[in-house]
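Supplementary Note 3. Input sequence used for the single-chain structure prediction.
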Amino acid sequence: MAGLQSILPKLTAAGATVVGISTDEAPESRMLRKTLGLGFPLLFDEGAEIAAAYGVRMRGDTLAIPAVFVVTSDRRIVWRHVGENVPDRPTPQIVLDAVDGQPS
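The predicted structure, written as discrete structure tokens, is reproduced below.
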């Protein structure tokens, strides 16, 4: 999420809205948002229902696999990165390229 924060002005300029979704309890999500200095909302996904809808809920758990999605205003997923482990996240430039519609 800190990576997305680092390119937030560029994402906003590209017309993107950034929202983080966490399966952590709301107080922990608020603390994480404050600690990372996030300038975008960090929503609480109680029971990992949103994670399940996007296919990134860990089997048998209420945790989500780290993932980044680019979703159009008409709710189409046009790009995704689903990590294989916690540190497996796309670079900020890869996300920006995806938002800009460039191949990564």
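Residues 16 and 57 are 24 Å apart (CA to CA). The first strand starts at residue 20 and ends at 22.
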